[in-house]
Specification:
The chain is α+β, with helices and mostly antiparallel strands. The protein contains four helices and seven strands, in the order E-E-E-E-E-E-E-H-H-H-H. The longest helix has 16 residues. It is globular.
Length: 142
């Protein structure tokens, strides 16, 4: 499963997998406990594939940050998001050395690491861009 179907819902912990559309919104399944919730248009929802991290030069898509964490950990889990703030910042600096410390807060770092570990635990480890892989498949067929 790609990040196109993974959601972050404000006010709700963790990440959610988009299941189906309903009349009033959509149905999402928690990656933490598997519970399904109905999400209406009132909720502030972000697709993980649309989230980016500020660096000193550009915005880096979160999928690239996840890929760098995966590379650093040889495909394994990252450190716990419950580590002290300084340890989380040092870890994130190793992963993304030019992240903008003025705009990327410790809470953001904590969330990125928590999300990575949650995705890893659920077997979602392909952080490549879905659109790019589709285009490559089409060009190979020609």
């Amino acid at each position: 499963m790609s990040l196109e179907k993974i959601l972050s819902i404000s006010g709700k912990p963790g990440l959610y997998k988009l299941k189906t559309q309903t009349r009033s919104g959509f149905l999402a399944e928690s990656l933490i406990d598997g519970k399904k919730i109905n999400v209406s248009g009132r909720h502030n929802v972000s697709l993980l594939s649309e989230i980016a991290i500020y660096t000193l030069t550009e915005e880096v898509p979160i999928r690239e940050v996840f890929a760098k964490i995966s590379e650093k950990e040889n495909g394994g889990e990252a450190i716990s998001h419950k580590e002290p703030k300084i340890k989380l910042e040092e870890y994130f600096f190793e992963v993304l050395p030019d992240y903008d410390e003025d705009r990327v807060y410790p809470g953001d770092i904590k969330k990125v690491i928590q999300w990575y570990n949650l995705l890893h635990k659920n077997g979602i480890t392909d952080f490549s861009e879905a659109d790019a892989s589709k285009e490559e498949a089409i060009s190979e067929e020609e």
